[in-house]
């Protein structure tokens, strides 16, 4: 699956980023952006951060507001993920074994994963205080 994300050049003329890459823009210069070398299989965004599954390694890379992005990425440090979906302050996805994994804020029990087997979930949707 090839993902193309549009990127705005200084002349304001839209153009396409290379396949599997991501470009971000925002008025706040304090927001971190992904490396131009990163290639993604999927990307999702939460409140002040985005995370993606790196193409070829299935590792998670997050960017955005530094402290939030670093926290989310560190919580997936030793995992291989197939998919990710970001909520406002939490992230869930399927790991390489097919199990549901959720990390981040759990103020409302939104990362308390129901007990179940591998490949039990085929799609996810996350909100502010729920999964």
From TrEMBL:
Gene3D superfamilies: Regulator of chromosome condensation 1/beta-lactamase-inhibitor protein II. The keyword Transferase applies. One of its GO terms (cellular component) is membrane. InterPro entries: RCC1/BLIP-II. Keywords: Disulfide bond, Glycoprotein, Kinase, Membrane, Receptor, Signal, Transferase, Transmembrane, Transmembrane helix. Its EC number is 2.7.11.1. It is a single-pass type I membrane protein. It holds the Pfam family RCC1_2. It catalyses: L-threonyl-[protein] + ATP = O-phospho-L-threonyl-[protein] + ADP + H(+); L-seryl-[protein] + ATP = O-phospho-L-seryl-[protein] + ADP + H(+). It is found in: Membrane. GO terms for molecular function: protein serine/threonine kinase activity. PANTHER family: SERINE/THREONINE-PROTEIN KINASE-LIKE PROTEIN ACR4, SERINE_THREONINE-PROTEIN KINASE-LIKE PROTEIN ACR4. This is non-specific serine/threonine protein kinase. It comes from Glycine soja (Wild soybean).
């Amino acid at each position: 699956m090839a993902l193309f994300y549009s990127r705005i050049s200084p002349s304001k003329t839209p153009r396409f980023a290379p396949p599997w890459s991501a470009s971000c823009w925002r008025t706040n210069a304090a927001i971190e952006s992904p490396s131009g070398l990163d290639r993604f299989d999927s990307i999702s965004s939460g409140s002040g951060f985005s995370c993606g599954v790196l193409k070829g390694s299935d590792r998670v890379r997050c960017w955005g507001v530094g402290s939030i992005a670093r926290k989310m990425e560190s919580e997936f440090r030793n995992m291989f993920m197939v998919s990710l979906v970001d909520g406002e302050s939490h992230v869930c996805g399927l790991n390489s074994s097919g199990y549901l994994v959720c990390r981040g804020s759990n103020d409302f029990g939104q990362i308390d994963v129901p007990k179940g087997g591998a490949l039990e979930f085929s799609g996810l949707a996350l909100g502010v205080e729920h999964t």
